Amino acid sequence: MAAAGSSMLYSLFLFVATLSLQEMFRAKLASSELFTILGGFTSSIVFLTLLTFIGNYQETIGVKTGWGAVIIAEAVALIAASTVHRVCITTCFLFSAGLLYEVNKLSGMTDVKAKRV
After folding, report:
1. 79-88 burial string, b = 16+ CB within 10 Å, else e?
2. How many Å is the Cα radius of gyration of the chain?
3. What is the distance between the alpha carbons of residues 48 and 23, in angstroms, rounded to a whole number?
4. Residue 51, class by beta-carbon neighbours within 10 Å (0-12 exposed, 13-18 middle, 19+ buried)?
5. Residue 116: pLDDT band by 50, 70, 90 thresholds?
6. Quick check: pTM over 0.85?
7. How confident is the model at residue 53 (pLDDT cuts 50, 70, 90)?
8. 28, 24, 23: which is closest to 82 by C-alpha?
9. Alpha-carbon distance 55 to 10, whole Å?
10. C-alpha 21: how far from its chain's center?
11. Which one of 19, 25, 60, 72 is separated from 37 by 20 to 30 angstroms, measured CA to CA?
12. What is the pLDDT of residues 62-114, one digit of tens each?
């Protein structure tokens, strides 16, 4: 598993790159129904990378906010989705909920493995 510092930097880089590319291609992402759904998915990737950054930052400084990090990351992702198209907001929320469920499930699996050792 990567250290918190390097994971924090990688996730920040991916956050900036994903957000920049989404803003560069927002006219294309808003051009059709399929691309609008893709725009919501890219916004959920923004959510995931920002959530990873915030979580690693909190781990580095020794502070935990619980759901606060999720709410901040989701708000930023929904604002980014709103710059593309209205429908992107809904699809971003749905994709983000699915990603959050999977991340929570993976986190629970690693906690169980860590407790066994």
Report:
1. ebbebbbeeb
2. 15
3. 17
4. buried
5. confident
6. yes
7. very high
8. 23
9. 13
10. 15
11. 72
12. 898 889 999 999 999 999 999 999 999 999 999 999 999 999 999 888 767 76
Q: Give 83's DSSP letter.
A: T
In angstroms, the Cα distances linking 80 to 13, 30, 114 are 16, 13, 36
Helix (H) and strand (E) counts for the chain? 5, 0
Going by C-beta distance under 8 Å and a sequence separation of 6 or more, which residues neighbour residue 65? 58
HEC assignment per residue over 33-70: HHHHHHHHHHHHHHHHHHHHHHHHHHHHHCCCCCHHHH
